[in-house]
């Protein structure tokens, strides 16, 4: 029986890279506080072939103990993971006969409660980032920015995560170029529009035009999941550039299982985009996207050079109905 104690982070097949990174940062902050070893298990087949852990192919963990796996005969919290630490979240979801997605109930069943520090179980398992406020106080103790979740995410990013060597090498040239650029992240999928609302592309264009030429910002780096958005921005403003990557059909997510021809390459491309955004002289992002949130956490620009746009409150009328029908036809929803 192992005497080591762990915090284990499982991937959620419905979550993009930004959501997953936020979950890892929450787990890392908690693990440091409790003196536990961090384990990140992304073997769910989203970013690498099923059974291959994509996390160490994308990131290195620094600043706290890290292991690639755990023994199987550990006591667990929640108990649903007992004897099943080698399983993935979506596998347990199916084995448990789940059919309805209720965030609060699913979090309570498959993630431990981060408000407690004195668990006796060997392995504490989680999949979500939504419990971040429960670790804010301890992680922020004595800091002037304790009120700011994004400031604390930035601290956790810099303290615990580094891109893998391969990703860092790929990101070196675009990051250097981005230091004279406006970095722009545009999330534009049917799912995002239906669930969270959208920022009209005209708002991005007017913001970019206002910033161009300020203090040497002479080009525009665009990171988006929609090739039509990139094409429209290239036509609307000068100096637009992007990193080369595969795109899905317009409106479809990059990360859902089965979408990308090379899932690991797509995940590496997404991380290179995040690092490039973080290196930009100015940053224009959206308020409610985890990808945008992590790009702001990585940002090397001054706070007053980070402009956050807020989506309009959902899409209405016939557009909302059309989006909902399209989502019902095309989206694969998995935990």
Summarize the structure in words.
- It contains 13 helices and twelve strands.
- It has helices at 17-34, 55-58, 89-95, 103-110, 132-140, 149-160, 165-178, 190-196, 201-211, 227-236, 263-279, 290-298, 317-330, and strands at residues 6-10, 37-41, 59-61, 66-67, 76-77, 123-126, 161-163, 181-186, 219-224, 240-241, 282-286, 306-309.
- Strands 4-2-1-6-5 form a five-stranded parallel beta sheet, covered by helices on one side. A five-stranded parallel beta sheet has the order 10-9-8-11-12, with helices on both faces. The chain has a two-stranded antiparallel sheet with strand order 3-7.
- The two termini are 31 Å apart.
- 43% of the residues are buried.
List the helices and strands and how they pair.
Blueprint: E1 6-10, H1 17-34, E2 37-41, H2 55-58, E3 59-61, E4 66-67, E5 76-77, H3 89-95, H4 103-110, E6 123-126, H5 132-140, H6 149-160, E7 161-163, H7 165-178, E8 181-186, H8 190-196, H9 201-211, E9 219-224, H10 227-236, E10 240-241, H11 263-279, E11 282-286, H12 290-298, E12 306-309, H13 317-330
Parallel strand pairs: 1-2, 1-6, 2-4, 5-6, 8-9, 8-11, 9-10, 11-12
Antiparallel strand pairs: 3-7
